[in-house]
Design goal:
Elements (H helix, E strand, L loop, with lengths): L3 E2 L5 H5 L4 E7 L4 H16 L4 E6 L4 H6 L7 E6 L2 E7 L4 H12 L3 H15 L2
Parallel strand pairs: 1-3, 2-3
Antiparallel strand pairs: 2-4, 4-5
């Protein structure tokens, strides 16, 4: 599967889906972003059940600001609409595969339970 370009109009709908959505925040002028792109694209081909999305931070500056992106590339992983991973920096292929395996292995009932506990203790 190829990657999907996200905009402010499509971001929330895409990350809210069931399953895993990875988001690569990048810019064309960013050297590490250009180095990470082929790694990300190759992973997208290998994991057809995962949505591999990209956000061009130059074209989508407002969206990048909303997501508090301060360094690129930044990789985010959403599962069932919940942000479960966010890390700046270009990942080598083995590290990206580790992230994918970790996100696949999450017990989402436990994640939801922990989030509910955090909300309860923070008074949210």
């Amino acid at each position: 599967m190829s990657t999907v370009d996200l905009t402010a109009d499509t971001f929330t709908e895409t990350i809210s889906r069931d399953g895993i959505v990875l988001v690569d925040w990048w810019a064309s002028w960013c050297g590490p972003c250009r180095m990470f792109a082929p790694v990300y694209d190759k992973a997208a081909e290998a994991h057809e059940d995962i949505v591999f999305a990209k956000v061009d931070t130059e074209a989508e500056q407002g969206l990048a600001a909303q997501a508090a992106i301060t360094s690129i590339p930044t990789l985010m992983a959403f599962r069932d609409g919940i942000l479960v991973f966010a890390q700046p920096g270009a990942l080598p292929a083995p590290a990206l595969e580790e992230v994918i395996a970790a996100v696949r292995g999450l017990d989402m009932d436990k994640v939801r339970e922990e989030l509910a506990e955090q909300d309860a203790t923070s008074g949210a």
